[in-house]
Design a protein that fits this description.
- It is built from 16 helices and 23 strands.
- By secondary structure, the chain is α+β, with helices and mostly antiparallel strands.
- A five-stranded mixed sheet has the order 3-23-22-19-18. Strands 13-5-4-20-21 form a five-stranded mixed sheet, with helices on both faces.
- Strand 8 and strand 9 form a beta hairpin.
- The chain is globular, with a radius of gyration of 23 Å.
- The relative contact order is 0.18.
Amino acid sequence: MENIEYFKQYKTINGVFDEMKTDDNVRKHYDSFMSAFQNINSSEMALKDELAKKLFLTQGITFTVYSSGEGIEKIFPFDIYPRIIQAAEWDLIERGIKQRLKALNIFLKDVYHQQFIIKDGIIPAALIYSSPCYLREMMNVDVPFDIYTHISGIDLIRDHDGSYYVLEDNLRTPSGVSYMLENRNISYRLFPNLIPENKVRPVSDYPDLLMKNLLGLGNRNTSRPTVVLLTPGIYNSAYFEHTTLARLMGIELVEGRDLVVDNHKVYMRTTKGLKKVDVIYRRVDDEFLDPLIFRPDSMLGVPGIYHAYRKGNVAIVNAMGNGVADDKAIYAYVPDMIKYYLNEEPILKNVPTYRMENVDEREYTLKNLNNMVVKRTNESGGYGMLIGNIATEQELKEFSEEIVKSPRQFIAQPIISLSSAPCYIDGKLQPRRIDLRPFALSGPDGIEIVPGGLTRVALKEGSIVVNSSQGGGSKDTWVVD
């Protein structure tokens, strides 16, 4: 491997775990790909990189950034060099995510029914009830098969020693799976022989697994359930994903105006009249789903859908009210949930988290703010976040004041040295920070996770923020045997 030009040029970041390289050698699971990579000259690599950009453009693989109130549609940045994970590591990830989702799903049932975890003092009641995502309307609502977390995206990072940590749980309407699928399609176009040669596990059966679960939820009431995907519409940042998944599953893509509720049952308007709907994979947030119950000004939802759901006449994926479980203030208690509900030690660790409602932890954070990442408990997409070591004095002052004023709205974590992976940038391999979002599907037959997920990349040199809205991109994720 010593003669590989790309390898010799590649310099790791000091103090950062690199996915491909130790101090002097290529890691074994990257060895096969690197051996093939050395046979591709720089001009051919440049052509492949340009082809990837054109494919994303022509296929409309986009996302939307909202800036100054205007929606700007952008091509999703894609790095052609895959992130490779060996099977043994993936086995740990898979077991850890399944364990975590079992506990979170039990927590959601418990917190909307008997509330044993509150009565036993594991989680403070005030923390639950003060969450803006806790829906009292879901109290004592029985959901099909007791499954709340049908589709989950669990964000993982690696620290300087290579240990995996869960950064956050996405249990409401997690996005990004279409980019995982498209990244693999692009990789097949760019490196058609390398994927089978490296025995890369497939991700293409995700739509089939999801459809199987959706049909399984609808089979309670009919042998031929009708499934639809409910989208907020073309101006949503993930609309490309909505259209992609509906097409791959062969189901109708509908907006709120396409559905109507009659006698607590949901129907879809068609050219042949009304057609009963049994399962709704919704990509509309809770507060917009039913203007009769939640926001009366919502034009995205369906009047009466809540009562149809409560009566069991329609299944909604994911369940309403899941946001209380991925509230960043609740995140700190997930290891306690695993021990409480499952009587097991967590397989995947949390990032150490300081709870701002705790006086001692708040004071420690304020004294060490320049070494902390501070997050608002109900923001996403990289917004509402302070990275202490690159923040200005004014930003540190403003966040300090806000934390003291509203401690429930913040958590703090030490700055984790995210692992890096090689990216093909400006004609050479350069290290960039990454995370990983595997997608888990929970259905009547259990939890299934396609081997891979979405690896997000902080494309800006020196950045640790991987969100696409903050200048991040993605790369294909190969799980190799």
